[in-house]
Write a structure and sequence with these properties.
The protein is mainly alpha-helical. The protein has six helices and no strands.
């Protein structure tokens, strides 16, 4: 067997006439579907036009007016009557009582002040339960000295060392010796500085 016999896909030779027929029938089928779709759309449009141009009879007109206008008015009237009945029953069942000032103060105390007190107590108890106060810490004298030494003395020493390092870096290692003048040299220098130059 040759390699061409083993390959699963072998190219078939297509007859040009067969291909032309297939393409022709395919094109005819598509044209038929397009025409059917166009005819259906035209039919739907005609149906819509018939309904939109249709004249209403007196009976149809009356039922439409009744449905759109009269029934809505009746529904609103029924709703209004229902609301009025509910209002009347609510006003009849509750009796009004006139309270004097002491009764008003007692009601306010009961409804507001006692509730505020109750909430305050509850908040305090929950605060103690879930947010206990941190324990108080005391520092003895030695601890204070140690903290002072760490915060002040060590920082001061570090700053002095840094200052000295910078001075050495920019001015060199040697500090020039300061020359001390005796009294005679001081007087001569004073005279020289105060003399007017010509």
């Amino acid at each position: 067997m040759s390699d061409s016999d083993d390959s699963p896909r072998q190219k078939k030779k297509v007859d040009p006439e067969e291909l032309t027929k297939r393409l022709f029938y395919h094109q005819q089928e598509r044209a038929k579907q397009t025409e059917e779709k166009r005819q259906k759309t035209l039919k739907d449009n005609e149906t819509r036009l018939l309904w939109s141009n249709r004249k209403l009879t007196r009976g149809d007109e009356k039922t439409m007016v009744d449905r759109i206008y009269t029934q809505q008015l009746e529904r609103r009237e029924r709703q209004k009557e229902r609301n009025q009945q509910m209002l009347e029953t609510a006003s009849k069942s509750k009796s009004t009582k006139v309270l004097n000032t002491s009764d008003v103060a007692e009601v306010v105390q009961r409804m507001y002040n006692s509730e505020v007190d109750r909430r305050k107590i509850r908040d305090e108890s929950l605060g103690k339960k879930y947010q206990p106060a941190p324990p108080k810490r005391t520092i003895d004298a030695e601890k204070v000295k140690e903290i002072n030494s760490r915060l002040y003395e060590e920082t001061k020493g570090k700053k002095e060392a840094t200052r000295q390092a910078l001075f050495t870096k920019y001015n060199g290692d040697d500090i020039p010796p300061s020359k001390k003048l005796n009294k005679e040299q001081q007087q001569l220098m004073a005279v020289r500085l105060t003399e007017k130059k010509n």
